[in-house]
Amino acid sequence: MRQFIKEHAGDNPERLLLGASRYPGIDVPFAVEQLVARRQIREKLPSWAANDALAFPSIIAAEQCSSEQTARYKQRLIGHAACLCDLTGGLGIDSLAFSGKARKVIYIEKQGSYCSAARHNFQALGAGNIEVWQGEAALLLHRLTAADGIDVFYIDPARRGEGNKRVFALHDCEPDLPGLLPALTERAPRVIAKLSPMADIRQTLELLPGVCEVHVLSVRNDCKEIVFVIARPETASPLPVTCINYTAEGKEETFTFTLETEKQLEITYANQVQAWLYEPNVSLLKAGAFKSVTLLGVSKLHPHSHLYTSDRPVAAFPGRIFCAEETLPFNNALCKTLARTLPQANITVRNFPLSVEELRKRTGIKDGGDTYLFATTLQGERKALIKCRKAPVRPSGKE
């Protein structure tokens, strides 16, 4: 089977299924499921995709699992001596990452096929400190005793209900984390919850008492998950929110702030675009650190534009950095003539009345090239186009 999957890795899955009779002795539907699952994980699980000894219980398991980068990040949130219980095992990416640091991991999953695949994969990967338990997480809690010494519960509630329909309310996810939380905090001093990137952070905090940390994780500027760390006893200290983005080059952009600081901070807005322009990464935007990021030494262009500027480069800024070349007041006359001098550009709109497509239609500017054009609103509600070039390297902070 492994050889068949390797030989047909690039084949069309539908054609393989239609021609299943050509391969006697091969479970072609299973092989096709493995092929498709492996294609799903090429980017987010490169080491798993390269290992032909691993099995995948379903395509959806490959679609919904954590990436290797986000799993490794969450490993930081536990101690070396911890015993961790993963209540929603799934494909086992997070359990495996935790096992690299924890003394012991208990993987719980209600689907038998997932448990069988997990046992096989953990053995193939040499993870000997993971126990696999099959069953409903809420029902298996009573099996955990003081002897198990659980230090951390990890939970990733399924966001699909009956008929595989997507659900959004936290109470509708499986398991019901707010309902289960008292039982978890009674049995362990720490709970780590991975939630949807669509989750509203402030609303979720109202549903989950005891949250002491929030981590917003993105890969290549695509928000993947929001992690809430709940501790017992509850702490009254300011709640830190850490924004993480892994760039295409594998670098980690990090910014931490508190919701209290964001609420109380008074900032001064820039009257004009200066030498450098900054576009925050998606983790920072999701977390809502719109004012706190100015503490790095940048000024915001407008309360609702979420673009920043400075006269000196700020290398630590969590996002894209541009050299601002020209600020053009937006008007009909500009739309008619701009394409003559700027036939091609990468356009972004921030707090602007036109979409990218509408702006291209109005100006005739084609996509691509080395020039970046930000359509936005400045102080005084002035509409403008900011012509930039991407900084070739992270600026040093020196002129």
Overall description:
- It is a single chain.
- With 399 residues, this protein is α/β, with parallel strands linked by helices.
- It folds into three domains: 2-62, Methyltransferase PG1098, N-terminal domain (Arc Repressor Mutant, subunit A, Orthogonal Bundle), CATH 1.10.10.1110; 64-237, 3-Layer(aba) Sandwich (Rossmann fold), CATH 3.40.50; 263-390.
- It is 29% helix and 25% strand.
- It has 15 helices and 16 strands.
- A nine-stranded mixed β-sheet has the order 3-2-1-4-5-7-6-8-9, with helices on both faces. Strands 11-12-10-13-16-15-14 form a seven-stranded mixed β-sheet.
- Helix 6 packs across helix 7 (93-99).
- The protein is globular.
- The N and C termini lie far apart (60 Å).
Look at the structure and give the mean pLDDT: 90
Proportion of beta-strand residues:
25-35%
Rounded to an integer in angstroms, the radius of gyration calculated over CA atoms is 25 Å
**CATH fold-type name of the largest domain:** Rossmann fold
Q: What low-confidence regions span 5 or more consecutive residues with pLDDT below 50?
A: none
Shape: globular
> Can you give the helix content as a percent range?
25-40%
Number of helical segments?
15
Distance between the termini: 60 Å
Largest β-sheet summary: 9 strands, mixed
Look at the structure and name the CATH superfamily of the largest domain: Vaccinia Virus protein VP39
Reading off the top of the CATH hierarchy, the class of the largest domain is best stated as Alpha Beta
